[in-house]
Amino acid sequence: MLYDALWYAVLAGVLGTGLGGLLGVCFPRGSRVLTGRMFRLSAGLMLAVVFFDLLPEALELASTGLVCAGIAAGAFIVYLAGEQVHHAAGRRAGRQADADMLAAAVVLLLSVVLHNLPEGLVLGSSAFTRHGFVTTLLIMAHNLPEGMAMALPFVESGQSRLRAILLCLLAGAPTVAGAAAGYFLGGVSPFFIALCLSVAAGAMLCTVFGEMTPQACRLAGEEDPVGLTLTIAGTIAGLLIVSAV
Prior knowledge:
Elements: H1 2-24, H2 32-61, H3 64-89, H4 96-125, H5 132-156, H6 161-172, H7 174-186, H8 190-220, H9 225-244
């Protein structure tokens, strides 16, 4: 069971984000619109993770109050971290366009790191439930475009492609540590499993609505029809994975 939890974490977190980063660095520089659209696609997949898998599972295991508290905690952590990164990035020197792009990349990187830890807890905890493999597929699916969306702004801001890939791999690493902790702690109580699931859901929601969607609007335009289509397509794809597996 522990081996399964750790393998789920490597597959969903490190491999998913790393492969996405590898795909992302293949695109030429100057792809701001493409970066924004990758944010949109990833946002749709993350919404599918939240509403079609994590929250239904959490509500089966615990009360609505506990689930709401977990959502609030996860969102609050990501919000505070994002505020600190924006503040620090605002003091960086260099071209404003590059600084803005680097800030977008760092905020997404930090958001991914922060929600990959509770995602790892979810994977470790879900080793005790029937949804472990489904959760793994969903998290890996949204980590692919998420890795692409993370690598693109790093390259756009002047960072090397190798560094962008390594940072994507690094962003997925906390999933493994979280999975180990979630395995040992999640078997103690279904309430703790529900808390892990809801914290992950809150972190994802804050990432989608507080970081990814605003950045996508800035990069690709608020009324980009392709971006909207990708968000809907990502949500549908997530639902299909839940239904098919």
